[in-house]
Write a structure and sequence with these properties.
The chain is mainly alpha-helical and about 240 residues long. Helix content is about 65%, strand content about 5%. Keywords: Membrane, Transmembrane, Transmembrane helix.
Amino acid sequence: MSRLGRQAGRTARIGLSVIAGVVVGLGVHAIGHTSGSLLFAITGALAGALVAGGLDAYRRSARLAEVKVTVPQLSELTFVVNNDSRQVAWQLFVESVTRVSVQRLDEEDGLLREALTSLYGLFATTRETLKISRPSTHVSVGMTVECLAVNFLNLELRPFLSRWHPRLRAFEETSPGRPEMEWPLAADCRAELRLLQGNARSYLLAFARLAGVRDAEAMIDAHSVHRPRTVAPPRGPVGS
């Protein structure tokens, strides 16, 4: 659910509570046959708004739980999650697991350009998901799902993209029409991509664990098995 949708839901709940409070206040006034109907209405409205706000705050902090996950470079970490952070973790898992960039490329399978473009898209959508999501409830111990996502961006995706995107683009611009296999750095790029994909898998499993996803490994492997193969172009004309 987007930030706008969640905000609209909270506003609607508070609005309904205010209306209910007004009705209750007027009802109390009618029953008591006393003066000051406006005061009763205002009092009831404020009470309804306070109740709605309290319930919303309780809902956001409800079901706090500690979850331990292990990711590259950070070892085992303890996270504190609630319903909202589980939803964010689920969104990040879905965005990642459906990307071709996190599926392993064999030596002659797939295109590096396709993988790098997908990684750029994953970087952008992960950052956008964090921007539109409500920050996790403050806790005294443990990390949050936002911390995990930021580490994924800054420790994994950003270094790889900063290193290899300019180099591949330079080859494409200086050698238009040549297949990727003729790029002298193709093997090195693929080797580092495989390392990144292995680390990304650990992050995906961490997002899944925080979201409470069952059979996450099966979901990741299913996308890998059923991913259409993209065969790199031949080195020269057919029959040469």
